[in-house]
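G.,

No rush on this.
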Amino acid sequence: MSDKLKMARQFIQALPHSMALGMELRDLGDGSAEITMPYDEKLIGDPKTGVIHGGAVSALMDTCCGAAVMSHPSNPAATATMDLRIEYLRAATPGQSITTRATCYHVTRSVAFVRATATDEDAENLVATATGTFTVEGHK
């Protein structure tokens, strides 16, 4: 395991919301990240259907986007969400984990631009997409 991946996992495990939602960093590349959140009944937003609440999906996507920014080769020292637009395309299938993949595709002196997708086990049928901007601190 790379030092960067190990450090990112430790960082995500230090975030109380990430631990409460059961997030697990699966992959980290140069400007990309993948995080999975397991299905958990405590995250259900609609008891009749068993569908996970959109707020949990939003937190997953935001965290994954931030990890992608932090892993960018320009090595930002820190980041924070400026704007995150999420389009929910369908409900995630009850009982299935949700995985988000994010890519930081452009970084300026002060802003990083990110795209992300969220899927359940049907990876060809997106649950949500996101685009966002994040602050860049300590840009080299």
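When you get to it, here's the other one too:
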Amino acid sequence: MNRDTRLSDVLHVLLHMDKANEPLTSDVLARSMGTNPAVFRRTMAGLREAGLVRAERGHGGGWQLARPLCEITLLNVYEALGRPNLFAIGNRSEHAECLVEKKVNAVMVDTMAHAATLFTTRFGEITLDQIAPRHPVSASVHAHR
């Protein structure tokens, strides 16, 4: 099963951005995500639209946080990425004729809704400053990727 690592990748980048004393280029941040600058910019577009980051073009430009880490929750980032699917689990069919399948579908829908509620509640409680390393870690550690 393919995994969607965008949330983990973006959280990693945001924590590096917080420790930078200057804007970081798409090239530098893309390396820390293990991707190319064009993919990085597409991934970050939703975060920019949500007001979590800002980007300046040209000499001396780059990416910076638009808010302090203590004002950004995991849920903010998850939503800015378009709320990627949490689970690859689904029902066999949406319009079941079989009574057994209807019961299975009902319990699956209810359980998945409950899990999604727990997920969003918990992600809304965690701010990025709570997961940030205590000591600065430069994005340059990824320079040779």
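The mean pLDDT is 89. Strands lie at 53-56, 62-65.

Enjoy the weekend,
O.
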